[in-house]
Amino acid sequence: MANFMSICTMRNLLVLSLALNLSLIMRVFYEGEKHGPRGFSAQKADRALEKAAHATQRTLVSLSSSGQDDGEKLINLDHGDPTMYESYWQQMGEKTTVVIPGWQSMSYFSDVKNPCWFLEPEFAKQVVRLHNLVGNAVTEGRQIVVGTGSSQLFLAALYALAPKDASEPISVISAAPFYSSYPSMTDYLKSGLYKWAGDARSFDKEGPYIELVTSPNNPDGFVRHSMVNRTGGILVHDLAYYWPQYTPISSAADHDLTLFTVSKATGHAGTRIGWALVKDPEVAKKMIKFIELSTIGVSRDSQLRAARILEVIINSSQNPGGPESGESFFKISYHFMAERWQLLREAVNKGRFFSLPDFQQGFCQFLNQLSHGSNVKTKAWKIAKAYSEVIRF
Amino acid sequence: MANFMSICTMRNLLVLSLALNLSLIMRVFYEGEKHGPRGFSAQKADRALEKAAHATQRTLVSLSSSGQDDGEKLINLDHGDPTMYESYWQQMGEKTTVVIPGWQSMSYFSDVKNPCWFLEPEFAKQVVRLHNLVGNAVTEGRQIVVGTGSSQLFLAALYALAPKDASEPISVISAAPFYSSYPSMTDYLKSGLYKWAGDARSFDKEGPYIELVTSPNNPDGFVRHSMVNRTGGILVHDLAYYWPQYTPISSAADHDLTLFTVSKATGHAGTRIGWALVKDPEVAKKMIKFIELSTIGVSRDSQLRAARILEVIINSSQNPGGPESGESFFKISYHFMAERWQLLREAVNKGRFFSLPDFQQGFCQFLNQLSHGSNVKTKAWKIAKAYSEVIRF
């Protein structure tokens, strides 16, 4: 009991210290460079923390306008949301707009000749063009499978790769630290096909397994490779962040099953569009079956919108600064992320309890320059998330 | 063996006869009233059947334009697709169009104040208006949960209603004939939470169960009520076809958990938007959690489009024939379905192997008239589907 109390006291102290750090970071983020970080007190930080706990789990809450909070600003750190890209898309104007008349795309079917019958041909075309341009993934000899975000494709992959008549569910693993939703997404339906088996580093069970390789990794931003290399291992590569604004593009990924999502590539999280590049047609067929059974296809409206967005990005990269094409999306985003990361780094350096990893620079084939070898955006928001989790214990 | 052979011969004969019927129906559907049904031969019908078997599983295939098929027309009967509504939406013109600029709806979140944080407020508003206008469902005291089609909501309901710590999965049942995808949708992930247990009429297992009540029923079009009334029973009402064009609206449905879908209500299958009306906030919360875990929300673009479509339907019903509102969607659709149903009935009556059920007329509160008490469209396509299944054995 005494031990428990001493832990509690230590934790209370830690909460207080974290609150101070948090408050400082909030101020840096919100007051901006113009005013610089202002003074703060432990009481203020405590109040900020209390308010944050009561705020909705999902939003970026700014209380300063209410005039009741001594000018404090609160960030809810539970979730990321790529709204920072909005300003770019606003600047790009009408060329990004989609117009959908009431009689279009009424059918369930987008392309009856494609095994993935719910894949919009225009979206598929732009996905191939974008990968060819950026050089981040091989599309040749791959079936594109579109999904309602990459979450659905992750589940579709588990379904497709798990043996259907095994005596026990196949183990699903990933090297820690891993995307915090992997365990619950894998286990929420208590499937008899697959089961979360934790950290790939300590995985020693015999038999087949599925290893999730997220690179750059969520949450820590490091480039990742498979950790377990055993017979019967099947790899799923989640390359959601393998874009020039987050990490240097070193080569075209050439894996069996690779996941991407519009949310992270362009910031359009609300469209819920992801795609998988799948080498084995039989695996692709099973993923397609999964999407048939779970949602009978994928929003055609969102696919059409995503196609337009990708096309605009391609044009902006091919003819940057042109009157029709606008500023290069990847270049602008890269600089924007670097700036944010620097702000975070400055803020964290002023505290005592946290440090940020240093990433080596790498040569980006796409940007044709040495670029920060860091998953800038991810880390900015994921480290913030880590703060939040520590605070909540 | 002899017995097997005689069954085979009987089956071959049946195939031939069915082919004749099928060919006739195709002709009636495709040649239309203008030319009337033309003569046909068993050989032609056989060829038509063979071609149908080779045609894609998912499309309505017309071969007449190729000039290589003696003017035959083929229908693939595996799947329905509500493209027949296209002509109405074309006539409605620009008022049905949605315009989505590139910077809109980028965030994951549609409404952070709503427990269903991915529900577009405008879509929710039009859903309530439409139900109030049509009088087919009580919306008061219900949480609206939007889904990627009603399929996702069906799965979300199973997840929400199944006990999480039971010793065995809860039984999921429905009275035969039931929607043909129910068993595979329930069992494809071998969930430990729920399990398909077949026909509700013969269900005699003790303990809790989930009964799916589809009304009007898919595939037979009859109005349905719960078949099993035992302690521990939980009902899910799938009212996808409870709209004036399919069945008389007798009263506002007032159930615990009711599913609807835009696909059947308006014909916009490609938008993949459905909604649930849920009485118990805790059940709604679990359904929302399911959608978070499976797709992190629902396409905002499609919700915005669906909201516009529903708004146009409401206007067309409130001010039918007005210069701004256009012809009443439900009235036009009702007559269109009745006409199709009559064509099918005439065709089937000319054959010998099939009959169609007669439905009593009922008073439709919405159309304010006696209307055909039949789920006209559903049956037209589902009976065709039954043909297909018999032919395939």
Automatic annotation (TrEMBL), chains A, B:
Transmembrane helix recorded as keyword: no
TM regions (residue ranges): none
Residues spanning the signal sequence: 1-19
MF annotations from Gene Ontology: carbon-sulfur lyase activity; transaminase activity
Entry cofactors: pyridoxal 5'-phosphate
Classification via Pfam families: Alliinase_C
Domain Alliinase C-terminal: 75-372
Protein family: Belongs to the alliinase family.
Protein name per Swiss-Prot or TrEMBL: Alliinase C-terminal domain-containing protein
CDD domains assigned: AAT_like
Keywords: Aminotransferase, Pyridoxal phosphate, Signal, Transferase
Entries under InterPro entries matching the protein: Alliinase_C (IPR006948), Alliinase_N_sf (IPR037029), Ethylene_sulfur-biosynth (IPR050478), PyrdxlP-dep_Trfase (IPR015424), PyrdxlP-dep_Trfase_major (IPR015421), PyrdxlP-dep_Trfase_small (IPR015422)
Subunit text: Homodimer.
